Amino acid sequence: MNAPRPPSEPAEPAPSAAHAADSDGRAAPEHLPAAIQDAAAVGDAPGSTAPENEATPAAPASPAAPGQSADAAPPRGITLVAIGLAFVVGCAVALAAYVAINQGTFRSTGQAQVYGIAKMSVPRGTAKRDGDTLVVQAPAADVLIVSTPSDFRARELAAIDWSVEDVPAGADVRLLFTSDYRPRLVQNRPLAVEDGRVQTIVLSGDRDWIGKITGLAIAVRAPGATIRVRGVTAKPQTALQLVGDRAREWFRFEPWNGTSINSVTGGAPSQNLPLPIPVAIASLLGLAALALARRFAPARLPGTLASIAAGMFVLAWTVLDVRWTANLARQNIATLEHYGGKDAAGRADAAEDGDLYRFIETARAALPADPQRIVVLASAHYYRGRAAWHLLPHRVMWSPANDAAPPRGALRTGDYLVVWQDGHVRFDGTDGRLRFDNGVDLPAKLVAGEGSRAVYAIL
């Protein structure tokens, strides 16, 4: 029940939504509470001020218009993209420098000419053919010369590459050539040798490299030396030719051998520019470029310099590892083709030392079944060790370091001597004596084999 209003308090008229207005005559929204409408009216009144402690709410920021610059964070992964791009540019710069150093051009001047051993002759020295290789021996008191006729213009093909291996250290090796410009004069130029292989020579600036080249030859001064010649190639010194030659060296299949664990470059045995060198140069150039970019525009290249250097190192390592992995895949295929489907004896027979394995199997059949004391002589420690392995479980003695005859007292009655391609011992069958080059003379009998591949029993 509502209490009646006292007469002394007149009733307050209800404001009409249609006529409610503030002091300026602006209509107050009818949906706002009266207190808020009054506060708005007071704030809008002329001369009125907002309270000092009342904060004005900030307006929300509007999005940047198209084409308007804004300080936005760089996209994720921009550092990895920059590292990859810097490395690629570094590789291009390194290869361009290599082409410039080797006087390469960007214009092709002619087609490479390859001369194999079919038309080669050996005016001085002796030679025999071994597949696609010419095995030549230098005279004891003269110079070895291997020559071939040729037919190309000197200005078109300025690089001469002899495929020659096993050149002894200290040998004097020279390129000989004749031309139609001076047909009766034989020119010669020194050739560099690295790791027993003749290096390419560039004659683009040579005053005598003119006209049509009618003959090429290689001269080696190394008395009694035996070298292997596969051919000679005359080729243009273009950028594409240079980079292509180096790429073929880098990715040439390198089959496993006894020294594979010592190699880190991979590819061809002898390389003009090993792959780790341009990769290292490209990494350093790329890192320097990124360091400068980070110095002048740090906001666009996030990440510390240490993390960028680590990323560049991982990328360079990956490039080298890809080459190694590709070679490994090819080696796995070659191994499967060579050994696949064979048992242990078949694999040993198909190995590089299969002839040694077959000889040891013959020796084992001639030896007593009980373990015997055996001394192994071989020209190389590899063969001594492998022979000892194949002779197990016999008690085998062999020298891992020295290729020498056994000292006096090392062999005694009841022992066996296994000889594989060794020149320290000679057997005289007439009186049954083993004579070593160190003076040791022992009674013995031949058990198996003959000559430098034999088994003897010491009596």
Can you describe what's shown?
- This protein has 459 residues and is of the alpha+beta class.
- It folds into 3 domains: 77-106 and 238-340, no CATH class; 113-237, Jelly Rolls; 352-458.
- The chain contains 8 helices and 20 strands.
- Strands 15-14-16-20-19-18-17 form a 7-stranded mixed β-sheet. Strands 1, 3, 4, 6, 11 and 13 form a 6-stranded antiparallel β-sheet that branches.
- β17 (425-428) and β18 (433-436) form a beta hairpin.
- The termini are far apart.
- The model is unreliable at 1-59 and 64-70 (pLDDT under 50).
In short:
This protein is α+β, with helices and mostly antiparallel strands and 459 residues long. The protein has 8 helices and 20 strands. Strand 7 and strand 8 (187-190) form a beta hairpin.
Straight-line distance between termini:
143 Å
Q: Which strand order do you get reading across the main beta sheet?
A: 15-14-16-20-19-18-17
How is the main sheet built?
7 strands, mixed
Uncertain spans: 1-59, 64-70
Taken together, the total number of domains comes to 3
Element-level helix/strand string: HHEEEEEEEEEEEEEHHHHHEHEEEEEE
Q: What's the average pLDDT?
A: 83
Measured on Cα atoms, how large is the radius of gyration?
Answer: 44 Å
- The computed structural class is alpha+beta
Oligomer: single chain
Morphology call: flat
What is the β-strand count? 20
Number of helices: 8
Question: Could you outline the blueprint of secondary structure elements for this entry?
Answer:
Blueprint: H1 34-44, H2 78-101, E1 113-115, E2 121-124, E3 126-130, E4 133-137, E5 144-153, E6 159-165, E7 172-179, E8 187-190, E9 193-194, E10 197-198, E11 201-202, E12 212-221, E13 226-235, H3 239-250, H4 276-296, H5 305-339, H6 344-350, H7 354-366, E14 373-378, H8 381-391, E15 395-397, E16 416-420, E17 425-428, E18 433-436, E19 441-450, E20 453-458
Parallel strand pairs: 14-15, 14-16
Antiparallel strand pairs: 1-13, 2-5, 3-4, 4-13, 5-12, 6-11, 6-13, 7-8, 7-12, 9-10, 16-20, 17-18, 18-19, 19-20
